[in-house]
Every structure is written in C-alpha cells, then in structure tokens.
Amino acid sequence: MGNGDLESRGSIKSRGAQPPGPPPAYYTSSSPFHTESSEKQWTSWLVPMIVVANVAMFIVVMIVNDCPKNHNSSLEGDCVAKFLGRFSFQPLKENPLFGPSSSTLEKLGALERNKVVDDHQAWRLVSCIWLHAGVVHLLANMLSLVFIGIRLEQQFGFVRVGLLYMVAGIGGSILSALFITSNISVGASALFTLVIIILVNLAVGMLPHVDNFAHIGGFLSGFLLGFVLLIRPQFSWQERRNLPVDARGKSKFTVYQYVFWLVSMILLIVGFTVGLVMLFRGENGNDHCSWCHYLSCVPTSRWRCDNR
C-alpha cells in the first residue's frame, strides 16, 4: 500500500516513522471480511442413510405384502402392475398410492391408536415413521429429505438434523393418534424450495392410509425445533477475529433468537406433554374439532374414509 494511501487515512506520515506496537490491520482481498463466512461444512451422510433405510423398508413391506398371493381379486379387483410379481400393488380402489394393504402395514408397525393405548405398543409412535403407504407417498417424503435435509445436515451436522427428524416424526405420530382413532396411519412428516413440497405432502395426505395429521404435527414440531436446534450465531460473532474491535459482536446470539428459543422450547414441552396425556387418557381429538378429520382424508366415490 502506497504512502499516499496511508497519508489519506491519517495514519503514518512516512515509512521511516513506525509507531510502537503491532502494525495497523488492513483488509485485503483475501480477507474473510470480503468473502463469505468460512463456516464449517459437514459431510452429509445421515440424510442419505435415512433415504436408503426408508426405501429398503418399503421394499421389505412389498415383499411381505405379496399382492398376487394374499389378495382376493374377486372382492377388490386385480393387483396393479402384476408383471412385478410379489412387488405388485394393491388395487387402486384399496390403495390409490401404489402400495401395500392396510393389514401388511399394520403387521409391520403402522400407527394404530388402540394398539398404542390399549395394548401398550408405544413403539408404534416411532415405527410408523419408517413406513409409507405407497410409491407416491414415499417419493413425496424422500424428495423433501433430498432437497432440503442434505443441505441442513451440511450446515448444522448430523446430530441436530437427526434429532429434528425423529422428534418431529414422533410429534406427528402423537397428533395423528389423537385424531385418527379407527384407522392406521404411516409416514414421516413433511419437514423439509419448501412450500411446494409441503403442498404436495398435504395433497397426498388427503388420500387413504397417508396421515395428514402426521404431516401437520411433524411440520409444527419441526418448525419449532428449528428455533431450538438450528439456531445460528450472529455474523459479527462468527467473524470476530477478522473485524475491528468496535464491530465485533458482544453476544453469540441476538435477543430475539433467545426469545424464540425459549418460546419454542416451552411450546414443544407443553404440546408433547398435553398430547401424550390426552392420548393415554383415551381422549379423541375429534371431540374438540368436529371438522378436523377432513384434513386427513376426503371421501370420494372411489374410496371411503373412516378416520374418526
């Protein structure tokens, strides 16, 4: 940097007169101050593994289902895509999502309120997260994970994203069990651009076997968990070593971040506690909302809904 530049900044008058102490710091083009924040990028492996696990589980479900062997075609019609053999799907009148039967899903861990409450099979609140009602349902949820989940894991790491996935899924299961009392439900929530994916998941959730209460409950849980687990430090705190002293952030997080964290944590604790208490006391969520059952299934001439 030339003398003229130094003099124009009111700094050193000549190269021969250096003030005591370290030389003043000037930002060059290679300084992180002029580039994007050098955040640690994690390698995404958990989300791809979740996708693989869900696909593998769906394959297992279809192997167990074996429509040509276990389905009575004289009652509901022929299996769909019979050329797939035991991987062929139930008739569309029974399952319009190109998937297995309700009995197969129930056998492998689908969420059923009576089994959770009366038979003490609370594990179904978790197992149903890994089941999907059909190819359409599976694709909708896996696209969510691939397009959004991988990026989140790269930014925040596998621990926080893994907690987000599981806790949001359980939150969706609790809400589902409160409102769907006479039918099974499966599928992880629509956590993860986002508006289109949410709309697709909600639209799919209007069909039989796919549970929109799990989608809605999972989305709300995931939304609140985002303020708890995915909180990010201020830029001025992250780059404090590269900024002038008077520009450095004094706090890692802002006041409103702390407020959102606290409010979200309270809502999560209260919501999960109230939901579990209502569930195991045998209360029916539809008693408090007469129209809510239409959020999960809309009856048509092609299928009926019995989700109350």
From TrEMBL:
Could you tell me where this protein is found in the cell?
Answer: Membrane
GO CC annotation: membrane
Q: What does the record say about its membrane topology?
A: Multi-pass membrane protein
Its annotated function is as follows: Serine protease involved in intramembrane proteolysis.
Region described as Disordered: spans on this chain:
1-32
Pfam families, A to Z = Rhomboid
Domain Peptidase S54 rhomboid residue range list:
120-191, 192-230
Where does the protein principally reside? membrane
Position of the signal peptide: none
**Listed Basic and acidic residues bias regions:** 1-10
What Gene3D superfamilies does the record point to?
Rhomboid-like
- Name its GO BP terms in alphabetical order: proteolysis
- Entry's EC annotation: 3.4.21.105
**Record key words, sorted:** Hydrolase, Membrane, Protease, Serine protease, Transmembrane, Transmembrane helix
Q: So where does this one cross the membrane?
A: 45-64, 129-150, 162-181, 188-207, 213-231, 258-280
Q: Which GO terms describe its molecular function?
A: serine-type endopeptidase activity
Its protein name is RHOMBOID-like protein
* UniProt catalytic activity: Cleaves type-1 transmembrane domains using a catalytic dyad composed of serine and histidine that are contributed by different transmembrane domains
Top EC class for this record:
hydrolase
Give the UniProt family note: Belongs to the peptidase S54 family.
